[in-house]
Fold:
Amino acid sequence: MPPTFEGPALDRKLRSMRRYRQFMFFALLAPVATTALIVLLNRLTGGALRFFVNGEPWTHSFWNTLFGLLLVGIAMAIFGMMRLCPRCGEAFAQSTGTLPPHTTYIGPVQMQTQLGRNALTSRCLNCGVSWKRT
Structure:
């Protein structure tokens, strides 16, 4: 069982989680927002930014960087599922059975699934501590 924290030690651990999540959200949203802004400006200016939209050869590194940043954000969201809650020591974004199982029907097969995973959660799914705590 990993060590659990309370008080100032818990706040320090949650601060590192906040920084991790802020960069994860930046990496997920910045490429999408940048692309949407370029397309919107291209439409509003009557094609002044068409060199970005048409894929000129010198813009490939720009688009590859945005795509790489998006992949980093996705990887951080996946690896963020493995982070442990500093208070209870369980997985922060994965329930350990406190939620009731959910019955799903796929064709003739009935499956019991546990709806207890959320990579973008702001609270521990086990003890309820919020990473926003200051």
Q: What stands out?
A: The CA atoms of residues 43 and 49 lie 9 Å apart.
